[in-house]
Amino acid sequence: MALYETLAQHFIDDIQAQRLPAGSRLPALRTMAKQHQVSMTTATKAYDYLQQTGWIYAQPQSGYFVANQLESTTFPSLNIKSIEQRDPKRFAPLNGYNPASALFSPLGTSMISPELQPSVALQRSIKRVTQRAGKHLFQYPETQGDKGLRSALAEHFRHDNLAFSAADFVITNGCIDAVRLAIESVSKAGDTIAISSPCFSGLLDLLSALSRKVIEIPISDQGLDLDHLETLMQQGLIKASLFSTSNMNPSGMTLTVEQKQALAILSAQYKTPMIEDDVYFELSHQKQSTLPAKYWDKAGYVIWCGSFSKTLAAGLRLGWCVPGRYLTPYLNQHALTSFGVNGLIQSCMAEFINTGEYRSHVNKIRTVLNQHIHHYQQFLLEHLPATAKISAPQGGIVLWVQIPSLNAVQLEKEANKQGIDIRSGACFSTHDFYHDCFRINCGWPLQNTGDKHSTYQQLLSLCDIIKSLIDTSK
């Protein structure tokens, strides 16, 4: 065992023995190095190891703290005894799976708070670009996207060990647009698409609008049911699959390297395209992003989609796709439904990436979001019934909560009456299976400011509603 691992184990022993309870501050790096008579390099490696294994988390400008030690949580997974194609339109909630609502509160929509957005740095990039803007900004943009942005993306992802060229990328109006184009490029109305269960509500609405049928593939603590998926491919029952693989919404799960690799292999083996919605890819709570399934795609059957909506600002409506072998039909579909993406925004984003500001921003918010997740978990542990199961994601910005006997649809209605926006389990499946589950966004800081509209107060009110509903159901 390396010296840093021995040092890390010392803290793990203290945490397990509750000599260091959740929320305890750890010694500063320099102090720890002196106390244990090790180098700063060893001390840093020890804390990095503890963060990566979930024992501690860093809080910017404040130090390192002991993380909540949630027991391994096993959520119930959809039990499919027979292969069932379903029309998502038939089973949609009254207002759709992901309804647009005038009601907005921090707990509802999955996004980071404005205070985490690098407004000043982004404004500087916009100003520089507009000052040197040429005539090309007043012309229709290229269908594939601005080459400067595509080159910037290729260079950016090379730092994550993903080897793409500018020619591999297509720029889109956000991730949902990238996914839409992918679906339209590899399937037609009436075709069946395999999706995960639970599945992001926006994808269910999209598939409904495009008149595609779905088959839900269960997710358990072991990951996707790949045997079920392969059976569907063998029998030719699906035209394509559509999965998130990292920091999924709503479960927070990230598939293992082995599962991601298997998805790429299965797609090539059965020549069945897989659309990878990787919008949370860069929001790992570790220093290094996890690799997407696309990394193992040697035959081009994985269509990799992402955007800047979750990492930077949803209002930019700027996304991208690496369509692989489907580049030509993808571009054709893009040309039919759009005259390109806003050229000024593309140039500004290229500038923001090339200056290093974007990577610096992403690295910063990973740490902050990790802190948020731990704060929300601790709050829910203290205020929800002991039977509640709370997810422990290693990335992303949402928590998935299950409380036996809870009517989550009723919870959503009662919360809305008090101006609190959440998503019930019914939003994430065509099956009536997640009736006791709900999702909350953790992109806002959880601070008790005394303001009745604060995130803290809204979450407290939500917990009170839950207790009331459960007491009524007894």
UniProtKB/TrEMBL annotation:
Lineage: Bacteria, Pseudomonadati, Pseudomonadota, Gammaproteobacteria, Oceanospirillales
Entries under Pfam families matching the protein: Aminotran_1_2 (PF00155), GntR (PF00392)
Record carries keyword Signal: no
Family the entry assigns: In the C-terminal section; belongs to the class-I pyridoxal-phosphate-dependent aminotransferase family.
Native source species: Marinomonas hwangdonensis
This protein's name: PLP-dependent aminotransferase family protein
CDD domains: AAT_like (cd00609), WHTH_GntR (cd07377)
Keywords, comma-separated and alphabetical: Aminotransferase, DNA-binding, Pyridoxal phosphate, Transcription, Transcription regulation, Transferase
Keyword Chaperone: no
InterPro entries, A to Z: Aminotransferase_I/II_large, HTH_trans_reg/aminotransferase, PyrdxlP-dep_Trfase, PyrdxlP-dep_Trfase_major, PyrdxlP-dep_Trfase_small, Tscrpt_reg_HTH_GntR, WH-like_DNA-bd_sf, WH_DNA-bd_sf
Domain of life, per lineage: Bacteria
GO molecular function: DNA binding; DNA-binding transcription factor activity; pyridoxal phosphate binding; transaminase activity
Occurrences of domain HTH gntR-type (ranges): 1-69
